[in-house]
Amino acid sequence: MSPGLGRILIVDDEPSVRDVLAEYFTEQGYEVTTAESGVDALRGLPDSRPDLVLLDVRMPGIDGFETLRRLRAVAPGVSVIMVTANEDVALARDTLKLGALDYVSKPFDFAYLERSVMAGLAHTGARGPGAAPATDDPWRALVHAAFRVSRGMADAARAATGVRLEDAALRAAREAAGKRPQAAEAALGEVDLVLAVAAELRDIAGADLTAVQDALAAARVTLSGA
Q1: How many CB atoms lie within 10 A of CB 9?
Q2: Is there a single domain that holds both residue 74 and residue 157?
Q3: Whole-number pLDDT of residue 215
Q4: Fewer CB within 10 Å, N- or C-terminus of the chain?
Q5: Could you report the per-residue pLDDT of 161-170, keeping only the tens digit for each?
Q6: Phi-psi category of residue 53: left, alpha or beta, with phi > 0 → left and psi -120 to 50 → alpha
Q7: How many CB atoms lie within 10 A of CB 90?
Q8: CA end-to-end span of the chain, whole Å?
Q9: What is the side-by-side order of every strand in the sheet holding 7-11?
Q10: Are 158 and 214 in a shared domain?
C-alpha cells in the first residue's frame, strides 16, 4: 500500500511520546514523520505532506494553539487531532473552535486513538477543493469509505454495526498490506456480512451502502490479482 493507510505527522516536544506514537502507527501501516516543535512542523510541511497531524497542546515556543492556527492557514485540508495531558482536556476542547477535528489524552488508549486518526483521515479525503487527493489504493479507499459511513450513522446504529464495519475494513487493509491474502479475504467476508446486517437493519442505505459495496468490490479485484 502506498503511502500506507495515510500520512501522519506527529508533533510533540517529548521524544518518548514521538517515538511511541511513530512506532505504533508505522507498525499498523501508516507513513509517519515527526517534528519536535511547531516551527519544525510548519517548516517541514512541503516535505511531509501529511494527511493528518497529531499535535501536542503544550509545547515550548509556538504552542499547539498557535501551531494549529498557522496550519489552518497554510494547510486547510489537513485534519488535526490535538494530543493533551488529562489535566488539559478543557484546553484541548477549545482547539475544536480553531479547527481541530478531535483531541486525545495521554496516556493513550491506542484503540481509541487509531479510530480517531482513521476518522480524521477519512474526513480529509472527503473534503472538497484543496483537500488531499482521493486515494487510488483500493484498500485505503475501503477503510475510508467504511469510516466515513460509520461516522455518519446515528449513535445506536454506529454502536450496533458501524464500529464492526470499521474494524473489519481496517483489518482487511492491514492483512493485505502484510501480504496475507487469506486473512485479508476473511476480513472482507466480515465486511460483507456486516454490510448485509446493516442494510437489513437500515443502519446503512442508499448511496452510503453503495459506496462501501463498490470499495469492497474494488478491494476484492486487487486481492484476486495478487
Answers
A1: 24
A2: no
A3: 94
A4: C
A5: 999 999 999 8
A6: beta
A7: 8
A8: 13
A9: 31-35, 7-11, 52-56, 79-85, 102-106
A10: yes
The pLDDT, as a whole number, for residue 132 is: 38
Q: Using the 8-state DSSP alphabet, how is residue 161 labeled?
A: I
CA distance 61 to 46: 21
Which residues are 9's β-sheet partners? 33, 53
CA 193 to chain centre: 23
- Residues of the chain scoring pLDDT < 70: 1-3, 86-87, 125-136, 225-226
pLDDT in tens, 59-97: 999 999 999 999 999 998 899 999 988 667 777 778 888
Q: 83: domain CATH number?
A: 3.40.50.2300
Give the dihedral of Cα atoms 147, 211, 30, 161; nearest 10 deg.
30
Q: How far apart are CA 156 and CA 203, in angstroms?
A: 9
- 133 within a domain of the structure (yes/no): no
Cα–Cα–Cα angle for 166, 168, 171, rounded to 5 degrees: 105
Strand 52-56 to 7-11 pairing: parallel
What is the SS3 assignment for 54?
Answer: strand
- Residue linked to cell 481496517: 170
Which grid cell sits at 120?
Answer: 480524521
How long, in residues, is the chain?
A: 226
Task: Say whether pTM exceeds 0.90.
Answer: no
- pLDDT value at residue 131: 37
Nearest Cα neighbor of 11 from 170, 50, 102 is 50
Domain that holds residue 200: 138-224
Instruction: Choose the final residue of a domain: 126, 150, 183.
Output: 126
pLDDT recorded at residue 126: 53
